[in-house]
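USER: For my understanding, would you kindly supply a protein sequence with its structure tokens?

ASSISTANT:
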Amino acid sequence: MNKNVKIAIILVTSLFFLWGVSYGLVDVMNKNFQNHLGITQQNSGYLQMAYFGAYFVMALPAGWIASRFSYKVGIITGLALYAIGCLLIIPATNMASFSMFLFAFFILACGLGALETNANPYMTKLGDEKNASFRINAAQSFNGFGQFVGPIIGGSLFLSITHSGENASSAEKEQALLENMFNVQMVYVGIALVVFLILLAFVFNKIPEGSEVSEEVEYKDNSKSIDVFKHRHFNLGVLAQFLYVAAQVGAGAFFINYSVEHTASLGEKALSDEKSAYFFSAALVAFMVGRIVTTPLMKKFKGESILGLYSLINVALCFYLYIADGMISVYALILVFFFMSISFPTIFAVATKDLPLNQVKLGGSILVMSICGGAIMPTIMGSINDSYGTGAGFLALAPCFLYVALYSFLWTKKS
């Protein structure tokens, strides 16, 4: 492996950490808006709709940029949009406007969509295809670390700020809102600065393209890239990715609500919003540990077989979450994150396996578009939660995991 490839792996891995932090924060913001802007659970799901809907909008343009220019240009474009979205948080917090927040997160997520469109397939091509699942899961471990950091920041700086509920005076509510918005603004301005520094690192470093990162020769003629839809394992993989991301985002969006609701009967030991955010961080640690522990197993067992087993376990856990209560229910929800850990990168690697190089960029774009599954599930779950409680909402995730299991065991071979 030459020096340029090693530098590329390091820089691209940093991107996985960056969007991990963003994802970890957005689920905390979901509960934060419920607390300070008076948003219902169903309406708070619009945050995820804006966030993950941006992936659908940006994936194909980002793939076109990568095909027309290079992965490097696509990544720099994504970093620029990420930084702009973070800076748009400034007017959103000044106005304390939920609509403005939705717009800021949409632009921010457009940047993340461009990053994922480029970084995921690029990482699979930075070496031999046999170890693609191993390589992308290793990089995604840093994504898990970023997701762990996000809720800690959000819990300590956002959810720790409370007022006295319905009995609070207008002045107390106003003061809590101002303090909360200031902290939100400072966090995202800080992220914007870090993103800008990473952008400069990509600008001033040469990263390899084409035959430098693959034994195959990259075709200059991409006219047959549309043939990617002729691969059955790819088409079914797109649906698997759509449903998996829907389940992951839904679980994260209402983790704090679930934890607060299902420990309320414990009295003084019940979890507050802030403490629930720390447990959410623990769930994302479990998510990261799941990747770290499972990735080496992919050297001995097929990634899709492990994915199928993990997904079946999560089907059972979803039903258990409906009937469970107390701290055991929170621990069960944390386990869901452990068994979700390898899903996204493994589905991505399996769905793009054996694709000709001139189809990989379009295939990667379409798989990133499928992340829009995360835009739909939170509003569905939020509606169920508002009417029947959060336990019932988690039942909606079971069919998603069941399909991923079926895909893993039956439909991953190239037709």
Observations:
- The radius of gyration is 21 Å.
- The chain has a mean pLDDT of 86.
